Amino acid sequence: MPTPSKAKPEGRVLWLHVADQQDGPGEVPILVRTIADGVDEVSSTGRTIGYIERVPPLFVALEGSRLDTAEECAQSQLWNRAAVRLLETDASHHRRAANIPDSRCALIAS
To answer: Model's pTM, two decimal places?
Structure first.
């Protein structure tokens, strides 16, 4: 696994088009920073939710706030689907902590 650089470069805000089972279509902003060759850090609501590593021909979603302890949660041929999976995994953790059933919300990349 690549070692992230010490410098924290400016990120870019991307809007993911998603569909929530409860609220319908919408957009979710995420902050993306490239931290190493082929590795992007993904943040939502001001905190790191995971990383996306490019391993041709796939994008591997790694859930967790630190790259050295992040765990794989998905693989996709599309970067945005890997990012949506990070959002789903993060939301699922929060719903379990709040005792809200997972069936109320599922994100779908468009």
So the answer is: 0.75
